[in-house]
Amino acid sequence: MTVNLHVHRPLHDNETGLYSMSVADDAVLPSFKEPLQAQRSEPARSNARLSVGLHPWHVASADLDVALRRIEEAMPVADAVGECGLDLFVLKGLADREKLLEKQLAAFRAQLRIARAFSKPVILHVVRAADLVLAIREEFPEQTWIVHGFRGAADIASRLFEAGLYLSFGPALLGGKDTATEEAFRAAPADRIFLETDDCEIDIDDLYERAAALRHISKEAMKQITEANFHRIFVS
Ligand SMILES: [Zn+2]
């Protein structure tokens, strides 16, 4: 089994990880339990897991009360809350930026409270908001937080690690252009990292190959690292 931490499609046969769904997506929602139940009924895919949340991109147009109720309803079959979090990039240049940021903050905190009530880990979407997330971390110091699709410099990554967070790295490691993220990945402690394809049509194995090369270890050793981390949070 290869850990693919965060995807927006059912997991492949050789993968274990979280199928992430947004409660704002009405096309997906009425049947959000079915993909997981179908996956779990197949022995080969019994490691399939589900995360349910309100993505910060959907906060502006969402009815927050409805969204939060849907997340709570999903908790009995979900393994994590998310992705949720803060995205300051999408607010750039908007006239009602302050109001929308308040709404993102309210949605994020409400989802963290749900995670606390149901003792679930949280998958975070964080774009240009590391400082805000670290400030909010002080209100929820006991939770397991995994920042998905991390992109950024090693100093930001190390501040997130110091606060106890996990970081999941994605397609940014491919292509050889995002040297800051590559550097952050190389310096990251092995017991705090994941790999993910997110919504990209790439092969998770190619990502492992690249990640292993960056850390000068074998692909097998890279797989053991994320498997141990996944097991610690979601299995044991
Ligand atoms: Zn995603």
UniProtKB/TrEMBL annotation:
GO MF assignments: hydrolase activity, acting on ester bonds; metal ion binding
Record keywords, A-Z: Metal-binding
Pfam families: TatD_DNase
Binding-site positions, a divalent metal cation 1: 83, 198
Gene3D superfamilies, per database record: Metal-dependent hydrolases
Residues where a divalent metal cation 2 binds: 125, 148
InterPro entries, sorted: Metal_Hydrolase, TatD-like
SUPFAM superfamilies, per the entry: Metallo-dependent hydrolases
Superkingdom field: Bacteria
Gene Ontology CC: cytosol
PANTHER family in the record: D-AMINOACYL-TRNA DEACYLASE, HYDROLASE
The protein's name in its UniProt record: TatD-related deoxyribonuclease
